[in-house]
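Aggregate trends can hide what the representation actually does to any particular protein. In the encoding step, the backbone of a single protein was reduced to a row of integers, each denoting a local shape. The record that follows shows the chain in one-letter code together with its fold in token form.

***
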Amino acid sequence: MNVRDSEVICGLLKKEGYKITDEPERADIILLNTCSVRQHAEDKVWSEIGRYKSKGPLLPLRTNHPRPRIIGVIGCMAQNYKEKIFERTPQVDFIVGPQDLHKIPEIIVNLTTSHILPKNLFEKKIFETDGEIRPEEIYHTGFYEDKRHAYVVISEGCSNFCSYCVVPYVRGHLRSRNYKDILREIEEAVGEGITKITLLGQNVNAYQYKDINFVRLVGVVNSVKGLKEFSFITSHPKDTSLDLFKTMQESEKIKKYLHLPVQSGCDRILKLMNRGYNRKFYLDLVDNYRKIVKNAALTTDIIVGFPSETEDCFQETCDLLKKVEFDSAFIFKYSPRPHTEAQRLADDVEETEKRRRHGLILDLQKLISKKKKSETAIINE
């Protein structure tokens, strides 16, 4: 999602005449598009901001007056911490939340254009975090970093409120885009020579716009002329249906791949996580997926060290990995997130134990992935 948001921002700025550089040290404006899903991601941003302290006057963008470098923090951390960012990192000039990306060009103009620059102009701090709905046109600037593949957002926000997840608090409740606008964006991308699309959402299969649900949307996207292949991420098990699997099998353009986060193999932990399903439900879902969608890949997300996770709970997750045999998995150590229900729980799994479990389950998945690749190679031969 953040990759597409960055493309949206670049498209908006290019439309206003700004140029993108791959040399940050020479840039007049530094924008850090941020993620708050994990503590580690935030720590990297705080460290990165420190690299971009103003190094003295730079040439102005639209005036004949020298000015210092402008630094903006945008995305989930901006929404999460708001003006507290200015207190921790005074060199930051503005912050913009996920729903206010369209305001960035105007903010930069506000900071860079003036016939008479007052001495305290760059002491001004701007933050925009009150937006609720993104203007549709931000998705139609035509900027894609990859000239063969494009990400297309079909829904914004999430209403699941998994107890560990900050997304509903920084991106808001689930909002599905008009399917006609989604199709228009895909057709525009295809018109630029892009032939592969990934549909994006925090929970794509909860998509619902009037009478068009996600299964129907998949069918409509499959019919777009010039599109050769498409996929989607991320799915939530509780909203994944057999109808989706049947549509995947029947749709010739859809990639036979499903990312289906399980998070834990322990029913007690799944309940604490507010995931809305149990171990048996998940295993039955996987079984049906593999029966219906032939030769399909399956990947997942796993969190270790969630509050009160015992060794037995951890072993249940390892056992689930052995039963399912995912093609690959993204494995994370739990970290408390602001605003979430899980933050109220004691973070009682020691960091050393989280690292141990993370390492063990990572090694297990590597063995499974290696085995799966070997089996695939034999079949292909």
Remarks:
- The CA atoms of residues 206 and 239 lie 6 Å apart.
- Residues 55-66, 115-122 have pLDDT under 50 and may be disordered.
